[in-house]
Design a protein that fits this description.
Two copies of one chain form a homodimer. Chain A is an alpha+beta fold. The first copy, chain A, has two domains: about 110 residues, 60s Ribosomal Protein L30, Chain: A (2-Layer Sandwich); about 180 residues, Alpha-Beta Complex (Phosphoribosyl-aminoimidazole Synthetase, Chain A, domain 2), CATH 3.90.650. Chain A is built from nine helices and 14 strands. The radius of gyration of chain A is 19 Å and the shape is globular. In chain A, about 55% of the residues are buried. At the A-B interface, α1, β2, β3, α3 and β4 of A face α1, β2, β3, α3 and β4 of B.
Chain lengths: ~325, ~325
């Protein structure tokens, strides 16, 4: 099972760290001190890698925070503090960036508590966010899955990655207005979906409340599937030491998603399983539990004995391929 | 009093944050939750900005950690956890970087607890470090200085900035061997000092034990003078709402420092006051307290009433200029 070069480096790192008596790298956030109640997570947002180089500073700020908060959601934590390391050229509108960041922080109850500023030839924002275990809550870990658990998805998948494809092919956004790349053969309804995918890519909505709900269950496992559903399901299963069966027909697909994939010459299933950039939670719950309908979750499959991950299709069952983002392999 | 554009942005940020009921930006680290016992600090190390682009990955790792731990030292905290956001090109030797980082972490009792990896065209390491208030200790704040306190420096100043100058003029390091730029008219003894300054620049020694000692006093104020003695003294005085008098003759100067400055066509006093990159502590203590001799500290002056900062020289007293690094002004 090859989980790509990032996971190989990660496996090597975990080996080195556990040799030193340290090992805290298996989840979306690290729990501090070992018994909590804090969890810390760090994420990059780099111009030209994670977002278009000419993106509005306000959007960069909001996206940076949302992406990080999604990791806290996967831990079942409430966001509390953020630290920003911002490097940017002198032409960058730092005040616009900070104003938007502070507004977004306020919305999520996060205090911007410190940071570091530096000059660089391109914009890179590294946010460190600190979350707190919810009162009467438990940590949600990748390793908490058990054989027989039901798998759920916190929302639709595939759209954000289509948005990213469109941006790479020349889509742009000014204010709320998205311009699509010329030459795409799209019906009016698909154009509307296409514009929505760009907005979803640029501003994911972290599933904080769903995460806190999961943290209040007796047991739940979760991961944020930003690197792609298939790769992140592999990670959850590896940490929980189980296999999984998911059903292609249960993948939550937006209307006109396939039409838009075809126009972009992309395979819909590949996009759903490996597109990445979906900041929704993939989680496992004991079979009798169901998430409240308000969170818009859909069932996806179940955890099974063994280490095999299978995709059930109309025409039979096949091994689930390891598709998804690997920051050290594909984003060169 | 113009503290440069970084401080202006900082002042604007603090105003925005305090309007929202947040204000935690006055120290080298942020204290979490508001009563402790944790403090968090974040720092960039960017190739071509903070260190030469071809620097050995192991040296980048050690320098990144040292620079961050110096901020914890200024808070009187013991280092506990580190989080790394590393972006680098595919040619970068990540394993060499991580091996050195883990060894350095072990040396200082720090656990590398998480991080994020991304591809980028140049190397940038952002470390977030978490420190803990020492048992029976207090936080050391920039704002704890009082009129009448004695000012101290934790070690010699100016050397690291000469090392940086030498690197910018073509000095290089392979293993422990420093090659100096050609064409410098230096005696053998000055060459030895020049080589030492390069090593000091590349690997500062964070004053953790001195910081913990300060944290065990009834009251102490401190700042890490990495942005330059004069600018950081201005910051400490602003937070403590006092003035200061320091004596040029008391500045701790290495033998042959002036000779090396002359060879580099630099004004020794400017280097001492504004060179920056000295990861030593500037601190204020009540007049009866003296740091233990083992820390190698030297007295520098005292905190006075009012807001004026003065430099006492043989030929009279003058206002202390605001000299030093401003990441948003000078490192373009």
């Amino acid at each position: 099972m090859d989980l790509g070069s990032e996971d190989r480096l990660h496996t090597w790192l975990r080996k080195q760290l556990s040799d030193q008596g340290f090992d805290r790298l298996g989840d979306d956030g690290a729990i501090l001190p070992p018994t909590g109640p804090w969890t810390v997570t760090v994420d990059h947002q780099i111009a030209g890698v994670h977002f278009p180089s000419d993106l509005d500073p306000a959007r960069i700020a909001r996206r940076s925070l949302a992406v990080n908060l999604s990791d806290l959601a996967a831990m079942g934590a409430k966001p509390r503090f953020a630290f920003l390391a911002l490097s940017c050229p002198s032409t960058f509108d730092s005040r616009r960036f900070f104003s938007a960041l502070m507004t977004a922080c306020k919305r999520y109850g996060v205090e911007l508590a410190g940071g570091d500023l530096a000059r660089s030839c391109h914009v890179a924002a590294v946010l460190t966010v600190v979350g707190q275990r919810a009162p009467r809550g438990r940590w949600v870990r990748r390793s908490s899955g058990r054989v027989g658990d039901r798998l759920w998805l916190g929302g639709p998948v595939g759209l954000a990655s289509l948005g990213q494809q469109l941006l790479e092919r020349g889509a742009s956004i000014v204010g709320r207005r998205v311009s699509l790349p010329p030459g795409l053969a799209l019906t009016e309804a698909s154009q509307k979906l296409a514009r929505r995918t760009v907005r979803i890519h640029l501003l994911p909505e972290p599933q904080i409340n769903l995460g806190v709900w999961l943290g209040r269950r007796r047991r739940a496992a979760a991961i944020d599937i930003s690197d792609g559903l298939a790769m992140d399901l592999h990670r959850l299963c590896r940490e929980s030491q189980v296999g999984a069966e998911i059903s292609a027909s249960q993948l939550p697909v937006a209307r006109r998603f396939e039409e838009l994939c075809r126009a972009l010459e992309l395979d819909p299933l590949q996009v759903l399983l490996g597109g990445g950039e979906d900041y929704v939670l993939l989680f496992a719950l004991p079979p009798r539990l169901r998430p409240p309908a308000t969170y818009g979750c859909s069932p996806l499959g179940r955890l099974v004995d063994g280490r095999r991950l299978s995709l059930i299709r109309n025409d039979g069952t096949q091994p689930l391929p390891v598709l998804g983002w690997d920051h050290f392999r594909t984003r060169d």
